[in-house]
Amino acid sequence: MNIKNYINGKFLPPIANGWIDNFNPAIGEVYGQIPNSTKEDVEKAVEAAEKAFPSWITTTLEERSKILSKIADLILEKLDFLAAAESKDNGKPISLAKAVDIPRAASNFQFFANAITQFSSEAYESVGLNAINFTLRQPLGIVGCISPWNLPLYLFTWKIAPAIAAGNCVIAKPSEITPMTAYLLGEICTEAGLPKGVLNIVHGLGTSTGQAIVEHPNIKAISFTGGTKTGAHIASIAAPMFKKLSLELGGKNPNIIFADCDYNKMLETTVRSSFANQGQICLCGSRIFVEETIYEKFKKDFIKKVSELKVGNPSETNTNIGALVSKQHLEKVKSYIDLAAQENTEILFGGNRVVVENSENGYYLQPTIIEVKDNKCRLNQEEIFGPVVTIMSFKTDEEALTLANDTKYGLSATLWTNNLNRTMQFAKQLHTGIVWVNTWMLRDLRTPFGGQKDSGIGREGGFEALRFFTEPKNICIKY
Ligand SMILES: NC(=O)C1=CN([C@@H]2O[C@H](COP(=O)(O)OP(=O)(O)OC[C@H]3O[C@@H](n4cnc5c(N)ncnc54)[C@H](O)[C@@H]3O)[C@@H](O)[C@H]2O)C=CC1
Ligand SMILES: O=C(O)/C=C/C=C(\O)C(=O)O
Q1: Is 43 assigned a catalytic role?
Q2: Domain Aldehyde dehydrogenase spans what residues (predicted)?
Q3: Ligand 1 atom at minimum distance from 231 CA
């Protein structure tokens, strides 16, 4: 099936007629093509957005909210269809796409449909000076949203929904590796009555289409989720142009387990935080640190639980671990497993490719547990972004905290303990944007979401996102 760009409410082929193959990772075969868009396509999208902006900026909040709600309803109506498309495009289990990805895409629209009606400007009475200040929060104009392949519709809509709710017009690019549900979203937006040009979806490679979006002088802000290297490159172009930037980048998140935790709950959640979505979530707890007194027990129980996970074709409902997203990514992840031999570490479970019946060319890999002795090893310092976790023991709170913070990344951390004092000490001293205690990936869309250090800058979610997609302008009136 051939995907097209969605520009000015129309589905258009790329101007230069260049196309890229789209793969089904479950079987390792091409199943369609997507536009390899050029600067000219991006220019056309920007023109459409500029034309739509004067009307969209004056559309009432109630009307914007109604359209966003309608998009959310339509996503839910088409849940099974969208989940099947997402699973085929990405390799993730259909059960996960149905339970998480597509419902969350709908929630993103519903959440910002509501949030925009509650977003308000601030006012400051300058007492004694006979003046009043108030701050307008005006949409930026045309903004760029660039999203990755791991949670395709989930993250694409996480950016688009607040951007359009706040009154901007959007040029959006999904990952060229997983473009399908973004394409289908275009149809949904038209059906929901989103005016043409408010959302424009341009498909193509990061280095050409993505780069053209970042470089375009009329695009005022870039909201990006993806790899840290790419984020740094985008910043090097956008920062000198004084664009607003939100960068949600990689992670190497610690999962710190103390002996006083609720063990069964921890074990079950740790399996999920390690291997959900084939470990391809920036929030996955890929470095597991376990208190020495329960280390051997944890090791045995964790290996047992992980060995019960079914690696299989993502379209089967009992599959726990589907295919990795691409051949190139499979090779990258495998290269890290191969490092184990060089780094004085031991593979406790997994480490090999899996051949799935009738899908022999699919990109399957066993969930893999590696025991490491030193947090400085590359396996513990570099983002693998696959079904690979390391485990290591610690003795004291201080040691655990040092290990957790000893990384260039700072996205999230998970802490398992029932000790309140320890919880507060870690909460204050972990160098991450998010700390989960006795849970993982429990999401409340109002909360600030993002990382410190090489995990990025800015926060998504709730009013933080609406603030990012608006420019504050202060008005001071003397009376
Ligand atoms: N959410 C996360 O934290 C993610 C992290 N990654 C990490 O990054 C590594 C590389 O994965 P990639 O697929 O190469 O991710 P990437 O960071 O290159 O891709 C993310 C998005 O950025 C676009 N992009 C790439 N280069 C660009 C440029 N110069 N200008 C504008 N847009 C550009 C891509 O087309 C895609 O839409 C992964 O192995 C993983 O470690 C990848 C995806 C998501
Ligand atoms: O917003 C969320 O709930 C999750 C976001 C996950 C990512 O940004 C990621 O994996 O890249």
Answers
A1: no
A2: 20-475
A3: 17
Q: How far is the CA of 281 from the centre of ligand 2 (A)?
A: 6
- Contacts of residue 172, Cβ cutoff 8 Å, sequence gap at least 6: 144, 145, 146, 147, 156, 159, 160, 182, 199, 200, 201, 202
Q: Which residue has the tokens 């890290």?
A: 336
Give the C-alpha separation, 349 to 367, whole Å: 7
Residue in 392, 371, 440, 376 with CA at minimum distance from that of residue 291 = 392
| Chain segment 361-404, per-residue pLDDT in tens | 999 999 999 999 999 999 999 999 999 999 999 999 999 999 99
Encoded tokens for 227: 């790899």
Among residues 29, 122, 215, 248, the one annotated as catalytic is 248
| Ligand 1 center–CA 342 separation, angstroms | 28
Q: Looking at domain 5-249+455-478, which CATH architecture does it have?
A: 3-Layer(aba) Sandwich (3.40)
Which residues, in sequence order, are bridge partners of residue 146?
A: 173, 224
**Residues whose CB is less than 8 angstroms from the CB of residue 337 and which lie 6 or more positions away in sequence, other chains included:** 347, 351, 368, 370, 388
Domain ranges of the chain: 5-249+455-478, 254-446
pLDDT in tens, 283-295: 999 999 999 999 9
**Cα→Cα distances 354→313, 323, 330, 357, Å:** 11, 10, 11, 10
> In CATH, which of 3.40.50.150, 3.30.230.10, 3.40.190.150, 3.40.309.10 is domain 254-446?
3.40.309.10
- State the closest ligand 1 atom to the C-alpha of 383, by its place in the atom list counted from 1: 41
Per-residue pLDDT band for 1 (boundaries 50, 70, 90) equals: confident
SS3 content of the chain, % helix, strand, coil (to 5): 40, 25, 35
